[in-house]
Amino acid sequence: MSAAAQRRRSRLARTVAVVCAGAAALTLPLVGATSASAATTSATTIAGYPNNLDGWIRESLAIMAERGIPGTYNGIYRNIIRESSGNPNAINLWDSNAAKGTPSKGLLQVIDPTFAAYHVPGTLYDPFDPVANITAACNYAADRYGSIDNVFGAY
Asked: How far is CA 130 from the centre of its chain?
């Protein structure tokens, strides 16, 4: 299976893992379990990365390396924590972008026109997809600032 097909299927795997983990968390108390540790086990994506912030960053870095987009784990992580606290579903409904009808979305708070312009083929076309959001944001930051590593505030 091609890398692009694997990344498309990884979105489905992330969604299924979250739904299943949620169902397990609800079911465990009903079957007499004393621990919910099974519900907190991180699934892996089809591409083989953990389905969590660390895995999303690492998968994005692999795609970025294939495309020549600069950036480091630490630079991406620092910006994600500042922009969304690691929530891939974060949306900013109060800033100037939101007032203009284009709220910032996802881990790195990318607006739709920027996502469209800097989307990296092979990732999902969804600004809420963690890997697509990180990769597009890093592509934008590389074009504008040389690298996501050079971003230390809102961008």
From this structure: 1
| Cβ count near 122 (within 10 Å) | 18
User: Tokens representing 22?
Assistant: 């949620």
Structure token digits, residue 143? 């074009």
Is-contact 97 104, C-beta < 8 A? yes
Q: What is the pTM of this model?
A: 0.74
pLDDT level of residue 5 (50, 70, 90 thresholds):
low
Average pLDDT, integer, range 117-141: 98
Residue corresponding to tokens 């920027």? 114
106-124 pLDDT tens trace = 999 999 999 999 999 999 9
Residue the block writes with tokens 């004393």: 34
Q: Spell out the residues 6+ positions from residue 45 whose beta carbon is closer than 8 angstroms to its own.
A: 10, 13, 14, 51, 55, 59
| Contacts of residue 95, Cβ cutoff 8 Å, sequence gap at least 6 | 103, 104
DSSP 39: G
Q: How many residues does the chain have?
A: 155
- Measure the N-to-C terminal CA separation of the chain; round to a whole number of Å: 36
